[in-house]
Amino acid sequence: MLRKEINRVALIGTGAVGASYAFGMLNKGLAEELVMIDLNKEKAEGDAMDLSHCLPFVSSRTRIWAGDYSDCKDAALVVITAGAAQKPGETRLDLVAKNTAIFKGIISEIMSAGFNGIFLIATNPVDILTYVTWKFSGLPKERVIGSGTSLDTARFRYLLGDYFNVDSRNIHGYIIGEHGDSELPVWSQTTVGTQPILQVIKKNPQFKQSELDEIFFNTRDAAYHIIKRKGATYYGIGMGLVRLTKAILKNENSIITVSAYLDGQYGENDLYIGVPAVINRGGIREIVELDLNELETKQFKASVNTLRKTMEPIL
Q1: Active site positions, annotated
Q2: pLDDT tens across 283-299, in order?
Q3: pTM as predicted
């Protein structure tokens, strides 16, 4: 049974992404307990101290401490941001071998502690490492979730909102597939408010398909641009993980594009990939199958094949 009396979240990895997530969690007050675990114990202790000193300034009463893997036993959620980071010039898929080896040790330690909650994975390549977590943990597939294309979708909506001069929360559309270079926009299902985006550009000559294509390219390549400028991305994914945590702990039944296990959906089996899914206290309640057009179906299949090819050496 999942432990529901106290919402304890265990964070594995207190680097830039983990610290950004912890800061967002503190501000939102989503968990009663937040335990920070890192190979660098002094870094985890310093972060826990620093964050605890924020408590007089916020409404949150979250108890924060630096712990170890034994603290995962009573966690409702374990969030993993640990691993080798993407460097300038590297793709997310370049990180497969080294992060798979790191994850094998991490998951073994967590499961040995008696953990029986939900995993939320952010480390890249996230689709493959979510699959690895599922395999190593032995947990049901619905309780192992990757951040997937949730951040890509947020970037997509932000850029489209800026382009059309509307609140990005009124842009409804998804980026699906690999969280990486083979991802795709589902233009056929994207709307501005209630209006299909493809109809909007037909009716309004100031908007152009070529400019929408450029928006997608900027969405897909955003991490490269940010890494080139400041070395890493962490605020966006940090808040994305906070959003997913809220959907889980608050039992929201929210639809978010996550890395989810396909078992026949979209005609695919036995892999994790970014698709819209209903998220609640049990993890992934169900996968939402979008009605893809012919081009989108072909692009999604290509993204699936990219992941399968990259996974071959580690399976």
Answers
A1: 179
A2: 999 999 999 999 999 99
A3: 0.94
